[in-house]
Amino acid sequence: MKRLLLVFLLIGPNVFSQDELQEKTFFTEALYYNLDEYNKKADLAYRLNDFDKAKELFENFTSNHLEGAYMDNFKFQNLRKKEVSLYNYENPVFLITYASWCIPSKGEIPALNELAKEYKGKVDFVVLFWDEHKKVKELAEKFSSDISIVYVDERQNNGAYVVRQLKHSLGLPTCFLLSEDKKIMDIRRSVFPPLQTEEETAFRENYIALETSISKNLTNTYEEIYADNVQVE
Prior knowledge:
- There is one protein chain.
- The chain is an alpha/beta fold.
- It folds into 2 domains: 25-69, no CATH class; 75-222, Glutaredoxin (3-Layer(aba) Sandwich), CATH 3.40.30.
- Helices cover 46% and strands 16% of the residues.
- The protein contains 9 helices and 7 strands, in the order H-H-H-H-E-E-E-H-E-H-E-H-E-E-H-H.
- It has helices at residues 2-11, 18-21, 27-47, 51-66, 108-118, 133-139, 160-167, 199-217, 222-232, and strands at 75-78, 83-85, 93-98, 124-130, 147-152, 174-178, 184-189.
- It has a 7-stranded mixed beta sheet, sandwiched between helices.
- Strand 6 (174-178) and strand 7 (184-189) form a beta hairpin.
- Helix 3 packs antiparallel against helix 4 and helix 5 crosses helix 8 (199-217).
- The longest helix has 21 residues, at 27-47.
- 27% of the residues are buried.
- Mean pLDDT is 86; it is low at 1-18 and 225-230.
């Protein structure tokens, strides 16, 4: 033990990386310590119909307490009813949660399909449904084959832990942008254009919002595109 201490003192602490010196904080741990306080404030805001305040609370909670943590290796079922682990996805992951009773915003699915095609091989797009297999299989037909469709059927008491952490903590739909090592880079809500918005306009609004988040948080191309635009101007 004395020899190890002597070696550490001789070579200095800078040899060890910051990651090696600090333990990772995981999503479930961050929820455990911070979720109750957020829920109290958010519930009050919703009771008062103060939706702007509720949005502000969500953004502050996720940016201050959840982003930077690492997503747990949650397990789901795919359309073949085979177990899939989140860590099976080797690329950065764009994960969005849905359910059959939660209608995606207008233009969102076409935007996801287009982006999954453009980022194929670079980002894994995963749609997680809280639903039964039969219903998920029907809903999956709307999505591109470039998107991985998974589900958790809580009515069969499967994946109760996943349901409690991912569904009941933040609600749905919720988007999680995860780096290659599953670090949470961003958490965001869907874009909901007004009902009277034209389909093409709704698609563009969703596409721009999603593409900006992906390029900024998962592919590091946002700054490059911005720099190119500045030079052109």
